[in-house]
User: What shape does this take?
Amino acid sequence: MFTGLIESVGTVRSVKRGTASAVLEIEDGTVTEGLTVGDSVAVNGICLTAVTVGGGRFSADVMHETLNRSSLGGLRAGSRVNLERAMRADGRFGGHMVAGHVDGTGIIRDIRRDDNAVWYTIGAPPGILRYIVEKGSVAVDGISLTVAALGADSFSVSVIPHTAAQTTLAERKKGDRVNLENDLVGKYVERLLGLAGDAGRPRESGITEAFLRANGF
Assistant: This one.
C-alpha cells in the first residue's frame, strides 16, 4: 500500500527487454536507502518488487500484463520516474490509499497556468472516468491528486508548485501518456453493492427513485 506522496524522482539507467517483459534498473539515493530485496516500490504509480539492490540502484521485473496496462513500456535509459516506498505501519498517511495497481492510462490534453498553480487536463476512457468524482482523489503517475474539475471524457487537477517540483509533472507536456489509478473506495463499494457485472462491467442496479421513496429515503 502507498500514499501517493512521492519520495523522490529517480532515473532509469537501463531497460532490458524480453519477448514480452522487461527488467528496469533505476538509480536513486533516497529510495534505495534501507531498501532490501523483496521490498515494494511504486514506480510512476506501479507497484514493483526490488529484485536487486546496491550502489544506489535497484532493479525490478516488469511482466507482460503491467507493460500492457501502463506507460512503463515507454521508459528508456535516462527517463525520470516518480518513486515511493511502501507505506510504513507507523507512518503518517498524508495522501490517499494507493494500491500501485493502475487501472489504465490517460493522455494529457492541456496544461495551463493559474497564478501559482498549474492545471492539467487528462483525457481518460469511460471505465476510469466512472469512478472519478469532483474533489475526490486520483493517482496520476503515482501522485495523489485532487480532482478539480470533471468533464465528459476528461478530468482536471490543479497542482501547486511544490508538487510539480518534487515529481515528474513539471516535465510533462501535452500528448504525454500517464498512469491512472482510481480511488479504491469506489471500486469496492460498487462490487459489494453488486453494481459490477461480469469482468467488472457496470450493470443496472435496480435502484430507482420509487425504490428509495418506498424505503424512506
Notes: The longest strand covers residues 104-114. The helical segments are 64-69, 126-129, 161-165, 184-192, 209-214. The two ends are 36 Å apart (CA to CA). The chain has a mean pLDDT of 91.
